[in-house]
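Notes from the 1:1 (GR / supervisor)

We went over the backlog. Supervisor wanted to see one worked example end to end before approving the batch request, so GR pasted a single chain during the call. The sequence is below; no edits were made to it. Supervisor asked that the structure be written out right there so they could see what the output format looks like.
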Amino acid sequence: MKAAISRLNCVARIGLIICFNAISNAGAQSGGSIKVDEDAVAFASQLIQEGHSIADRKGAWREHKPSPDVENQFIRAHGFAEYAKWHLGVDERYAANTKRRYKFPYGDFTNVHRCGLLAVKARAQQYGYGEIENAAAELERKLESKPNTSHSAANHELNNSKRNPTTVAIIKQIAPQ
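Structure output shown during the call:
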């Protein structure tokens, strides 16, 4: 009988430990250490005001999101302070000079992308980062309310030298002058 009670007590303690661990992990994921980068929000807003925005379609972020190689080139050329401006979230658990610190990218280091803001909103909502979701929604409203500042997808491809040279050559041939 004592052995059964002892086993039950041990199982209960293990269960409590698992529950506390799950609760602390959930807290870390939802609004824990990732905060809105207000400087990045201001920078994105300024870019939108200046017309450096693309009102592209939902789901285009996979095509427009900078590759890790492009990110590394940008960091080498401009440093982490500039890299940070292109991310709406900052994870304070990581050092300032690491890519892991910067979360929720929204642009291609030239333009703010509507599809990037939509991706930020979706991910922020999924993981419970309400402030980041709201910041992305506000930037999306600004982008969509700005008349005649969005580039067409063809012009974006043409002006973005990081794209496939074959694609750029084809767009130059078909784009109206």
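Supervisor's comment: The two ends are 89 Å apart (CA to CA).
Batch request approved.
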